[in-house]
Structures are given as structure tokens and as C-alpha cells.
Amino acid sequence: xxxxxxxxxxxxxxxxVSSIRNGFEQAITLLKAPAELIEKGKLNAHRFELEHxxxxxxxxxxxxxxxxxxxxx
Length: 73
What we know:
Layout: H1 2-5, H2 17-31, H3 35-46, H4 50-65
């Protein structure tokens, strides 16, 4: 799911053998230098930390309620 993994994953169509094969080929190529993908994964995971998620919900709830409140970021 691109919405979750962002650019920190290799996506394949699980119903197409050629897509799966291409995904494996990309992974094997990345095994030579996986640090970039790992770093992207760590940065992406930061989006899902409790503080960020709770602030996003708080902003949404205040917006729905028509109230303004500054949320710490």
C-alpha cells in the first residue's frame, strides 16, 4: 500500500508473475546497497509515531467542531 509504505518499499502486483519477478530483481539489486531503502523506511515510520497521529486526530476533531486550537508539532 503506497499510502503506508511510501517510497520505502518495493511494490508488486501479487497476481502477475512478471511483477513479482521484477520485485525480486529490484530487491536483489538493493541488497548491494540497502541503506537507502532502510533509511527511507525509518523516515516513513516517523509519520506513524503516536504524537504525530494523535496531533493529526486532534486537528481533525477541532476542525470538524469548528474550533481553533494550536496543536504542538
